[in-house]
Write a structure and sequence with these properties.
202 residues; mainly alpha; hpI Integrase, Chain A; 8 helices; globular
Amino acid sequence: MQAPKPQRTLPDILDIEGAITTLDALATRVNEEGSNGAIRDRAIVETLYASGIRVSELCGLNITDIDFDRNTLRVIGKGNKERVVPIGLPAARALTEWLNARPALANEKSGEAVFLGSRGKRIDQRTVREIVYVALEALGGKVKMGPHGLRHSAATHLLEGGADLRTVQEILGHSSLATTQIYTHVSQDRLKQAYEQAHPRA
């Protein structure tokens, strides 16, 4: 007899309104503080949500990996596989603003790294997780998720917006379409939930 496969569960995801609230709060912080840290943090969260890339892929980004003419990122994913991921205009603008501010934090340890820690070295995953946790405090402490939650949110919002599975598979860098298909279950659950809330005869 074959043991049943454990059901794959996804972490919580942001709804679109929550994502917008979080990014607006980061933009407000940039406008009020104008600090290099605020500019960097906004660019990190915008990039994670816009692209759906993994936190390791974000930390590994080099300046030459950004193509502002096409608004794309060249990403090295699992198994050293390279892929090109699109980003939207808000993320491209946030990245431009950060790269203009980056020299203030850069030193001989920075190399070509896009995102830098406080000592000028390539940023580490732990710091990025902390940045995401703090950014999501804009939602009043209702959501606790890290960079992977932003990746799941981006994938779900793409599918709900009409993107096909193959496209989302390419963007996320999944080797198997079956991995991407778990997001269709999330979308169906959300559809059912919205129906039950909105329909008088649900």
